[in-house]
Amino acid sequence: MSEYKRLHRTLVHQGKITTTYTDRMLLPNGREADWDFIGHHGAAAMVAENEEGKILMVTQYRNALERYTLEIPAGGINPEESMMDAAVREVEEETGYQVENVEHLVDIYTTVAFCNEKIGIYYGKATKKKKQQLDEDEFVEVKAYELTELLEMIQTGKIQDSKTISGILAYYNFVKKKQ
Amino acid sequence: MSEYKRLHRTLVHQGKITTTYTDRMLLPNGREADWDFIGHHGAAAMVAENEEGKILMVTQYRNALERYTLEIPAGGINPEESMMDAAVREVEEETGYQVENVEHLVDIYTTVAFCNEKIGIYYGKATKKKKQQLDEDEFVEVKAYELTELLEMIQTGKIQDSKTISGILAYYNFVKKKQ
Q: Within an 8 Å CB–CB cutoff, is residue B29 touching chain A?
């Protein structure tokens, strides 16, 4: 393998959930180059199946895409919280459902070319319904879908969020087919 | 649906492949908040099957993760180039293989919470082997894998790149099973 070395990391901007840096890299060919690096503290997501066998999905406004998107419940990780606990808490907050029998599904790195964001994706059974407890800048609509509907929505491009595609397809191939 | 409105977008930093902004948002509850926005021009990727029925994969160093990762071939889109042409070109540059019978598979948004990066993922047949033509800061190792090996590497966490997980699982479920 060729060897890369980071010579410097320069902080450019501290955002709300991301930090922008410029990394000065020494390349295997001996030359130097500046590469972008966006730091992120990671997130957690959950494929939560309700008692009817449907998957809980949330619709929310995504400013980055300037539209609403259909996604599995997900959110950031609080200080000293495990990824699994964060995933369970986010489902409760966003959908009102408690989740039990939680298992790890896959971890994804969302965009490896410039960002270290890792999303831990879990699956579990959504049981007792409580009440949505959203953050003050969060407005989310909840609906449950059959897994077959979600597969079709991925195939036809109605779902395009990478954590949702990865989570739903991994759940279908690695969990449901084994049951 | 609740209404969100972007009041201002402030340029913070122009990077090499990303642009960092702060967006001032008017939330449905009437309050204002600053949200991060990372602009990106998009990328293209390819699930390329060779004449032995194996999938071409590349290993490269990812500074953001500080390690080597196993991925499907991918890269940025040149000005006035279509996503499909970019995917074909990236496979040729990174692996040396020409790709034919190219079809669209899925588009993914890598990380919708703060970034507009879209990756168009295609599939095709890798045929004639030519020669790798890498960018001057690009060093890539190429190897072909059985689809079943790749599925197992996703399930066991050896592959964690979101475009690769989305692309391989979509190819398995939406293309191979229909053949």
A: yes
